[in-house]
Amino acid sequence: MSKYTHSGPGTCNMFLENNIITRFLFPSKAIGCIIGRGGDRIKELRRSSSDQTILKIDGEGNSPERVLTIATDNSDQVVQVLQMIYNNIKEDFSDNQYGYPVVLHKGSIQTREDKYQLVMILSAKDCGRVVGKGGSTIQKIEEDSKARVTCVKEFESGDTLPNSDERLITFTGSVETIIEGLSLVLEQLKGQNSHYKAWDLTKDGP
Asked: Residue 200, SS3?
């Protein structure tokens, strides 16, 4: 059973058995794909998830990005929630000539119509586990998922997100490939429970 009770700003990730806490960064323009009109979509996400699953969105409405926290009892639930969200994104932005809105970072570009982006917030240590020695692990994840997977470690604040020990892992590709990439990363992080300084979007900004 997940022991997660609060998704306040600065919450750390956790990848323990029966206790998973993961955080994702979304463009504010895509938040409607999570919440929906009158909250109908987030209600459906909660109905379709296990009783132990908690969903929380942090960040101010005028911020260019928001943080989605998913706390649940197994990684399959995380994958299921993100699959449903990206099905909504695919539906909502299918006719948008500019494609899906992305979280822009140094070196990033706007995605094409058939490409989507998922951004995961991880501690620098967990990013290191995803990358692996000489990039071997992240290369294998890319090969198996067919998604483009990148560790972002260049920010205006330095090599971590402001006032934190965290970086970003981005997945780019079709909905199917980024979800598969996420699943492989969650498998790689299974059992990890690092203590570190988490990024607070509300306090320290994007």
From this structure: coil
